[in-house]
């Protein structure tokens, strides 16, 4: 009888150990519309962990989680959307979701120190960015009320302030990293901001302020590699060598470079690349006699596809490929695996533009660099 009792106790403890302890959320929700929802997602893979209708009342719900990690709390209320990072773990989360104040961080009480650091990050953000957000609200309002005669001016002004807001995030992350040099949250926040390719110097400055253990973590090494990659493609840097050969079997040589050169990273099987080719053919006709060269670098693997598209799309500028696809050194060194990708270099192979150019700006950037050199 005692053996059976012990066995039951053992089985009960095993089942209890396997049952994940939930994360419990208690929110006061207010000032949302009738169809508003809150969503909790994983930023790693986009998996939706919970969706709840917002009731403008006290709401409680649970998430059974086998492991802890980063998560995003989102609110959607028509065109009004909020997004907040937090650290998901077992235990109790308490907060306030206010539809009239979506800039305010909703979590007020969390079960761990990792979560408390996020509360502090958003507190820093509120204190540092109030004036900027007020200015952005003003220019957004002016843009909404723009007339046909001034809409372009108001749109450009709004874009400038939106860019300021994005760049200001780096100042906030920098302040957080200074306060918490041993926190891996800085790596996560930099990764989510996604500006390593355009702000590598700022990223490196923040990275170097972190504790050595954080720098040498798996995520730290990955971010550092991304920063180094971006740094070598900044204006003033020397373009990495283009590997491979042209369709006639000749290797790339710097001697083909002209005063201004557009490097085009593409693939024959990309629908976007094929559409871009239609625009590029016309641009090449405009500039080919003005000391400008286009250079195509394909990340293809099949020679027939590559050569046939060059012919079919009437691409008359120099083309190179090592036919290694995504494993090509070109893919890593020139565009950090992005397709399509554009940048300008001068006759010495010195990069003229910081990172990827939008096709919409290729024409104006070529003209600007021709005029300034």
TrEMBL record:
The primary location reported for this protein is: other
Specify the superkingdom. Bacteria
Signal peptide: which range, if any? 1-23
The record's section on CDD domains has: TlpA_like_family (cd02966)
Q: Which residues form a coiled coil?
A: none
Q: Where in the cell is it found?
A: Cell envelope
Q: Which Pfam families match?
A: Thioredoxin_8
Q: Domain Thioredoxin spans what residues? A: 233-371
Q: Which PROSITE patterns match?
A: PROKAR_LIPOPROTEIN, THIOREDOXIN_2
Arranged from A to Z, the UniProt key words for this protein are: Cytochrome c-type biogenesis, Disulfide bond, Redox-active center, Signal
Protein name according to UniProt: TlpA family protein disulfide reductase
Organism whose genome encodes this protein: Pedobacter riviphilus
